[in-house]
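Session log. Operator J.P. requested a structure for one protein chain; no other inputs attached. Running the standard single-chain path with C-alpha cell output.
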Amino acid sequence: MPVSDYQMVEAWKQVLTLSRLEAGQTVTILTGPATHPQTLSTALIAVQSIGATVNRLDLPPVNGEKALSRDALAYLGTTALTGNRAAIAALKASDLVLDLMTLLFSPEQLDILRAGTKILLAVEPPEILARLVPTAGDRERVLAAQQRIAGARQMHIVSAAGTDLRCPLGEFQPIAEYGFVDEPGRWDHWPSGFALTFPNDGTAHGRIVIDRGDIILPQKCYVREPVQLTVEGGYVTQIDGGIEAELLSEYMATFDDKEAYAISHIGWGLQPRAHWSTLGLYDREATLGMDARAFEGNFLFSLGPNNEAGGNRTTACHIDVPLRHCDVFLDGEAVVRNGVVLDH
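Structure written below.
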C-alpha cells in the first residue's frame, strides 16, 4: 500500500534528527537511474526543513553488462565513483551523504567515510522505509549485541536442520547497523537492525544447511529443498542438494573467483518490525530484501568480501543468507535459541 508524501517527509525528519543533522550543515543526495522518485523528493523537503544545505549528485549506472541481476548487490565491481575525483571531493566536503543509489563495498565509500562524512543508504521502496523507521531503542539493542560479540572469541551456530558452524572471532571489530548515522564517519542502512562481525580470516569451519523457507539473496527466493554448504578453512568447498543447490553453485561459478566462496559477515537480526514473510509480497526488482536480512532472530551469514570490516578480500560476488530456527552461541553462551533472541 503506498504511503503519502507527508508520511515520508516525517519519516525522513525522524531519521535525519537521529542522525544529528543540524541547520547549516551540507547534505549531498547521491542518486542514479533506479532511485525512487518519492524517496528523493521527500528527502529534499526534509533536509531543507531542518535548515541544511542540500545538493543532488546524479551518477550513471555501471556494471549492467556484467551483472546477472538488476539487484544493486548482484555485482560489486567498480562503481560510478571509481576514478571520479570531482564527485568524491563533493561527497567528502559534505557532512552527510544520503545514498539513494547503492555504493556498498567500494574503496571510494571507505575513503569518503575516513574523511568524517556520514553515509546513510536508503534504497528500499517507500512503503518499507516508512514501516521500518529506526528508533533510539533500535540503536541501544543493536549496540548491546555488538558489545556481546566484541567480548567473544567464537561464534557457534547450530540448527535442527543440520547447521553446525564454528567461527573464531577477534580479528575484526563487530559492526552495529541500526538505521541512522549519529557519529562522524559512520555508515548505516535504513532499514536495518542487526549486529554482525567477520570470522578470523580462513578459520570458519563446519556445515551450513539452508533449510526449506530460508532465503537466498540476491536471488530473493525462499528455498524449497535443503542446500548444504561444507565450510573448510574459511571457504565453502562444496555445495550439495537438488536444483536449488545447482542454481546457487552455477551462479557463483560465473564470477570465476575463489574469494566469492569465503565466509563473509555473520550475525543475527534484531528488528521486530521486519518480517520473514514479506519478501514474496514485493516485486523482486523493487527491493533489496532488507526485511529478510533484519527480521528478529535470523542468523544472517554471507559469502564474499570482508573489506567493509577492514579486511583485504574483495570480490564482485556477494551472497546473503538469513537462516531461521538457529541457535547462536558466543563462547558457549546462547544469544539466539531456535530463532528467538535472548536479550530480554
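Operator note: The CA atoms of residues 117 and 185 lie 5 Å apart.
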